[in-house]
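Homework-ish question, so no full write-ups if that breaks the rules, but can someone show me the predicted structure for this set?
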Amino acid sequence: MHSPSTAACPRQWVRGAASLAVLMALLCGTAVRAHEIGTTRVSVLFQEGRTYDIEIVTDATSLAEKLEVSAGRSLPTDASAARLQSLLASADGTFRRRVKIAFDASEVRPAIAYSVVPPVDASSAAAATIRLTGEIPPGARRFSWSFAWTFASYAMTVRSAASENPATEWLEGGQTSAPFALTSPAPPVDRLTTARRYLALGFTHIVPKGLDHMLFVLGIYLLSGRARSVLWQVSAFTVAHSITLGLSMYGLVTVSPRIVEPLIALSIAYVAIENIFLSELKSWRVALVFAFGLLHGMGFAGALKELGLPRSEFVTALVTFNVGVEAGQLAVIGAAFMLVGWYCANRGWYRSRVVVPASMLIACTAVYWTIERLSF
Amino acid sequence: MMPTLFSSSTLRRVGLVAVAVVAVSRVPLFAHDMWMEPTTFSPDAGQIIGVRLRVGQDLLGDPLPRNSGLVNQFVVVDAEGRKPVIGRDGSDPAGFVRAAVPGVLVIGYHSNPSPVELAAEKFNQYLKEEGLDAIAAQRARRNETGASAHEIFSRCAKSLVLSGLPSDTQGDRRLGFTLELVAEKNPYALRAGQDLPVQLTYENRPLEGALVVAMNRQNPAEKLTARTGRDGRVKFRLRPGGMWLVKAVHMVPAPAGTKADWASYWASLTFETRAANASGN
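A: Not a homework solution, just the prediction itself:
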């Protein structure tokens, strides 16, 4: 489940969710593949068995059209994000009529917040994020859901902060979900458990999941065989990504992944290309690595938001995730040193046979990622 | 055959609201239209057009991102020939085409079949709404009216886009889709008082007796309907301005081995009419 501060990037989610949905559908076989999957995505989070937090990400224009026409008004002509958001908020009563949240057999009335972000380019659409929140009735055993504002199939993901694996159910528009069994309120997660879990999540976000971050760290390592060079750059990178990770998680900095992700790829390309022409650490290289670290921190924040943070141990989770990320980076550097550094960093052919070819490979990969992330 | 006008223009607003409420209340029904809405129907030369797929009812639709598992054909035909419509899986718009040469671009999307099981009541209602009387009669003869139905459905959507000035010599082209609507005059070159003849073909042969419906984006409540004649043709007098959707559904017994009772094909054709070159109804 995503925190409110992530509301600035639902367009990316719509695209990401749709891509993921298509991928999952392909993997799950014909029963799901055959369905016409839309861009709507629903995430349900039960917080420690006491509250529910449901997020709907959907195409803002098509939802606003249905709401307006259902309410007896004409189709909206001004499709600006602000106008769409205002339309959605003003049609709250109409919206509620076709959304059902039930615990056992009783429907509950959630608090609803609507937000719309504008399209990122001429060919894309404004995305609406609708958050429905409230308290789970004491003693409730089962949850069910229906959302009748879409004609296409969509995936509903249900998870609780304590569980590792979310449950996903595919629903047609208007279809009521199968009853979801609620566990009894989980005891508050203790600090040590949280720290261990987020330390591991931070580490695995780099190794093995974060190939782009791994290549960036390798780019830093390859500049020079000297420990001083690695130390300065890694320190600058760490300080920088810690700053933006923290600021992003507290909602003080919000930049769309549409901007951040291509820039991260570009930063990897830059570092790798510079390695080909530079063999000594320069002060401006440290400054640049610091700037790139700010970008990577926002990328880490995006991943951490996807994972979700327990409210009771927010700071612990944030800090340990960052430490895990750091450990992952050091593991990459350690592995690179063990593989090539200790043996050949001082050899005459180290640059020509290791640094330059490896940097070229990293640069090519990163340029490809940059183009891919900018595409469509 | 000439169209029937469902509601008068004076009732337009009331009709719009009524049909929208009906449309939205039908959300749980699985028989939805599918059509294409290009990002523009009048691109400049060289312009890239996003091809959006939409599924819904009465032109209230949801985006359908590209799903390579469903794409059987996704093509564009212009004066230079037939080309695939490119796009990335999971993306909306589902594809992109370039208006490389002036003239009409015919964009086509033919999906692979999707299975669906419908309860008897829903299936019967859907047969009625789509004018599939022969299938309803067949079910009645077999005493199956009260039975649920296993169906596979395929989409056969087309869209006409005009780059440059309209001409009588350009227009729609046959793409060879299983069920296909073909505009027999260029809708962008229609003059005041002219009808648009449309032919419906099934497996490249004219299909007789099928219900064809036309509706305009500005007022989907005001539907034009007609049954195809022996030559598979209908004619519509289209109100100028805005996007038009012409649609038809055809159903046949499902081929052996599909584990379905029926196979349906959903043809759609979208284009724009312009205020300057078409007459009102």
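Now go work out the reasoning yourself. Hint: The first strand of chain B starts at residue 4 and ends at 5.
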